[in-house]
Write a structure and sequence with these properties.
This protein has helices at 58-64, 68-74, 78-93, 103-117, 130-137, 147-153, 164-181, 189-211, and strands at 11-18, 28-36, 42-51, 76-77, 98-99, 127-128. By secondary structure, the chain is α/β, with parallel strands linked by helices. The protein has one domain: Ribonuclease H-like superfamily/Ribonuclease H (Nucleotidyltransferase, domain 5). α3 (78-93) packs across α4, α5 runs parallel beside α7 and α5 (130-137) packs across α8 (189-211). The longest helix is centred in the last third of the chain and has 23 residues, at 189-211. The chain starts with 10 loop residues before the first strand and ends in a 21-residue tail after the last helix.
Length: 232
């Protein structure tokens, strides 16, 4: 009898849309958390629309569709939203893995927001990151590895890309597709989390070596799933 693996059990997915691409300064604009059952059907979802307390750049609003005016008029205050998001994820981590695409971005943003508002920081584990998985199992494949590109490659529907709910659902689909193809990732979630820490470090070291052919000072941080905070 084959043991049941994480992709056949309840699991969650998490996604943020924010004010920018730098996780050190980005503020949360929307957040979505979904839970799926063993058949990958959504059985719970929760969403937040947040007033980030700063102007939302036009470029960011063009991606996710939330303007400064909308966030101010309809959004929850950032401090309470960050506390709720972190608390909700903490509860989920107690019973299941949480998936996030490019997890080091989303969990670093949440970590910095928690510090900003005096919220207890989350220790995210076990995390399953389909970007890290894909880079490891199919490292020599050419082309982009955005969520949109990987959804297309793995034939996962992605409707309303760059809304946090749609991206969370696609994250589940891509992770499931990778698990169905590669037995290596169908392991205990905590063991997989530890493996991803090593896989991300290996990818970063290789990418840094590549970049240093043109820029000897290039640095690629391989810390996962939360980037280290700057000191000083």
């Amino acid at each position: 009898m084959t043991a049941t693996t994480w992709n056949e059990l309840p699991r969650a997915a998490f996604d943020l849309e924010t004010t920018g691409t730098d996780p050190e300064t980005a503020r949360i604009v929307t957040a979505s958390v979904i839970v799926v059952n063993g058949r990958s059907e959504i059985i719970h979802h929760r969403e937040w629309l947040v007033d980030p307390g700063v102007e939302i750049p036009e470029a960011a609003a063009a991606v996710h569709g939330v303007t400064t005016a909308k966030a101010r008029a309809e959004g929850q205050d950032a401090a309470s939203a960050v506390a709720e998001i972190a608390g909700h994820l903490k509860d989920l981590f107690a019973t299941m893995p949480v998936m996030a695409f490019n997890a080091s971005y989303d969990f670093t943003v949440l970590n910095r927001e928690a510090a900003r508002y005096g919220v207890e920081p989350l220790t995210p584990a076990p995390v399953i990151d389909p970007l890290v998985l894909d880079r490891h199992v199919d490292r020599y494949r050419r082309g982009k590895r955005t969520l949109t590109a990987m959804s297309e490659f793995y034939q996962v529907p992605l409707v309303d890309a760059h809304t946090s709910l749609a991206d969370a659902a696609a994250t589940v689909g891509v992770a499931d597709a990778i698990a169905s193809r590669y037995a290596e990732v169908r392991t205990d979630p905590f063991e997989l989390h530890a493996a991803q820490v090593n896989w991300q470090q290996a990818w970063a070291a290789n990418f840094q070596e590549f970049l240093r052919r043109k820029n000897p000072e290039a640095v690629v941080d391989g810390t996962w799933p939360v980037n280290p905070a700057f000191s000083g």
